[in-house]
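User: Predict glycine dehydrogenase (aminomethyl-transferring)'s structure from this.
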Amino acid sequence: MRPPPWRMLTSCSRFSLVASQVDFTAESIAPEVSSSIPPSLVRDSPYLTHPIFSMYHTEHELLRYLHKLQSKDLSLCHSMIPLGSCTMKLNATVEMMPVTDPKFANMHPFAPIDQAAGYHEMFDNLGDLLNTITGFDSFSLQPNAGASGEYAGLMVIRAYHKARGDHHRNVCIIPVSAHGTNPASAAMCGMKIVAVGTDAKGNINIEELRKAAEANKDNLSALMVTYPSTHGVYEEGIDEICRIIHENGGQVYMDGANMNAQVGLTSPGFIGADVCHLNLHKTFCIPHGGGGPGMGPIGVKKHLAPFLPSHPVIPTGGFPLPEKTDPLGSISAAPWGSALILPISYTYIAMMGSQGLTEASKIAILNANYMAKRLEVIDVTHSVTHYMTFTKINIYG
Ligand SMILES: Cc1ncc(COP(=O)(O)O)c(C=O)c1O
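Assistant:
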């Protein structure tokens, strides 16, 4: 029979009373403890020094602390998720439903392909849709974020140059208006970064770009360009910019983070880019910023498709897979990145259709310009100079 609860209480308090009165210490019981760790590898510097690591001594205290942190998370139950402001989309519940469906959620990333036929059908279909939207020939669903896509894309470019014997091509031109991840990714790929300036409106200075490309033509690897730019500008000279890079032996990496100002209206492939990442967690509805993980697949033109990432456990490559492949290696731990969240983008694209997606781009552009105008008014009435610089340029149109 179990003792009544008050008996347990008394015995617990007796135990704590006894425990505080013991006349032994850990050292007195075991003055020496033999260890198989060689002395040279024994750590003698302090660790976990933040007070938080010694504040909670009971399971309940720790549980309550963790719950307090958890309740600070901002999710769709509370509000729209405020990151990805440039490309905010509706994160509809119906898009989210597959994520908790055990048929998707319980699939191991390394499950044999013939046991994950549904997933593979979705990869194929999504690859096709993304190719159509971007004007590319093949898509890799491996990179886990925009920055991871940048790294993957630049590594594809590097592999392409190497395959042609151009091992020395390592210069990457990046406009000063670029997002910070652009130079960081180029540096991670071992590239030498050459910065080019922008004019007062935020447009790339094309003459400066031409000079930089010509001066580095023997070693030019790539240009990284965001379209529309981080300033919200559709570069009027974008096709000329791409031409200059190609004429000087480089490849054009387009940062597609602002893709929702292109979908259905134009495309990176049409404009002249060779490779581009999409932030599915921005343009294609995956909630992020306190709300979930990301996906940054890359699309490429035919000549770069053989070099798309593969995986040592389950060989992958692009969708569709070209006949001959020469993959650069792998970019992510799992063969298809954060595959579980791909149904969100897939559902969104399928539900919107081509007309709906184009309409969404138009409305996004309208909203951005509306915000720009409103901020201009704030500027006049409240003299907020910060917004003045922002709104002097064209936001997505
Ligand atoms: C223009 C641009 N490029 C790249 C990125 C990096 O994307 P991610 O945060 O998914 O790594 C961002 C993200 O905000 C961006 O705005």
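Confidence is low (pLDDT under 50) at residues 3-18, 383-397.
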